[in-house]
Design a protein that fits this description.
Layout (H helix, E strand, L loop, with lengths): L26 E2 L11 H9 L14 H11 L6 E4 L1 H13 L6 E4 L5 H9 L3 E4 L18 E5 L11 H10 L5 E4 L20 E6 L12 E5 L1 H11 L9 H12 L1 H24 L3 E2 L6 E5 L5 H10 L2 E2 L12 E4 L3 H11 L1
Parallel strand pairs: 1-11, 3-4, 3-5, 5-6, 6-7
Antiparallel strand pairs: 2-8, 7-8, 9-10, 10-12
The protein binds pyridoxal-5'-phosphate.
């Protein structure tokens, strides 16, 4: 702390990301990265962009990528917002759409960045408890609110909320914005983007960090009514005109165009997930039903923190959250077949 800080900074409680170890030999199953590389066509497009043009600023509107995303989801380009990772997109959503008098609602077990943004932007919030099976119950969200946000599939549980339940929620909540954070939707869910034309208060966010294997590039997006997008553009253009650099724009565009590679790698992750769940069940673990590229598992006879520490000693890292209700769970990202086997060997 120092006298030079703006007063609010001393009360900030920043997000703590999963460890990015400097040791590269570790089997890294702690931050839900894709175990396969990005599309070779995306890599090729990015290499082609490494030239003298880097002296020039990028297109502040990233129109090339907006058109690719709009074409992919069959919406108009003015229904698409882009940012430097979906974390930045979420920050602008909190800033531009959630600052009202009533509290923001989100599940008690959810993405831990949400309360951090509430702290940054001074937004009151009210956690809504998941049910005993760790599922979202949409009836529980019938409270006065400044907005509702949840990941779907939820993180860190991996549990999916069906599209008709989301529609039920939207029908009951028409006076504030509902954000569905679809960071993991491509691993087993159906996107709510199909609902944005019927529900002007629905905003869907996605990222290229997980299913398109570009966490290091930092590209995220939101799709919704043009009026919601305009609010985000206003915030963005008051903050950073160029959140996406030239390399990110062409790389992300090429990634969206390479449907075959996308499907192949998502399918591999899904198949490995199902196999890993069966292996963990056979070892006595209880695993929540996952539609994501990670699983959330607990063992009735072994302490989760102890398992995590022992795995780490054997070179395998998974994520453990010291939080109420979930401190006996481990969140394990789905790796390659070899990485998953290394996890099982370490558990054995
Ligand atoms: C990973 C993740 C994000 C953020 O992804 P970016 O890398 O910032 O695009 C957003 N929401 C949830 C629930 C996530 O798990």
């Amino acid at each position: 702390m120092s006298k030079f800080w703006s007063p609010f900074v001393k009360n900030l409680v920043p997000y703590v990301p999963g460890e990015q170890p400097k040791l590269t030999k570790l089997v890294k199953l702690n931050t839900n990265e894709n175990p396969y590389g990005p599309s070779p066509k995306a890599l090729e497009a990015m290499r082609g962009e490494l030239n003298d043009n880097l002296r020039l600023y990028p297109d502040p509107n990233s129109d090339l990528l907006k058109q690719a995303v709009a074409g992919y989801y069959k919406v108009q380009p003015n229904q698409v917002f882009l940012g430097n990772g979906s974390d930045e997109v979420l920050a602008h959503i909190f800033h531009g759409l959630f600052q009202h008098d009533a509290p923001l609602l989100f599940p008690d077990i959810s993405y831990s960045f949400y309360p951090v943004y509430c702290g940054l932007y001074g937004i009151p919030f009210e956690p809504v408890a998941l049910d005993e099976q760790f599922q979202i119950r949409v009836e529980d969200y019938r409270l006065a609110n400044a907005g509702i946000i949840f990941p779907n599939p939820n993180a860190p549980t991996g549990c999916l909320l069906a599209l008709d339940a989301i529609e039920q929620l939207l029908k009951a909540n028409t006076e504030s914005v509902v954000v569905v954070d679809e960071a993991y939707i491509d691993f087993g869910g159906e996107t709510a983007i199909s609902l944005v034309d019927r529900y002007p208060n629905l905003l869907v966010t996605q990222t290229l960090s997980k299913s398109r294997s570009l966490a290091g590039l930092r590209v995220g997006l939101a799709v919704g009514h043009p009026d919601l997008i305009e609010a985000l553009e206003r915030v963005k253009n008051s903050f950073n005109s160029y959140p996406l650099d030239r390399i990110a724009i062409v790389g992300a565009t090429a990634a969206f165009e390479d449907q075959a590679y996308f499907e192949e790698t998502c399918n591999k992750v899904i198949a490995s997930r199902e196999k890993l769940v069966a292996e963990l069940n056979a070892r006595g673990f209880e695993v929540l039903p996952s539609a994501a590229n990670f699983i959330f598992a607990r063992h009735p006879g072994k302490d989760a923190a102890g398992i995590a520490a022992s795995l780490r000693e054997q070179g395998v890292i998974v994520r453990h959250f010291k939080l109420p209700r979930i401190d006996q769970f481990l969140r394990i990202s789905i790796g390659t077949e070899e990485q998953n086997q290394a996890l099982l060997d370490a558990l054995n």
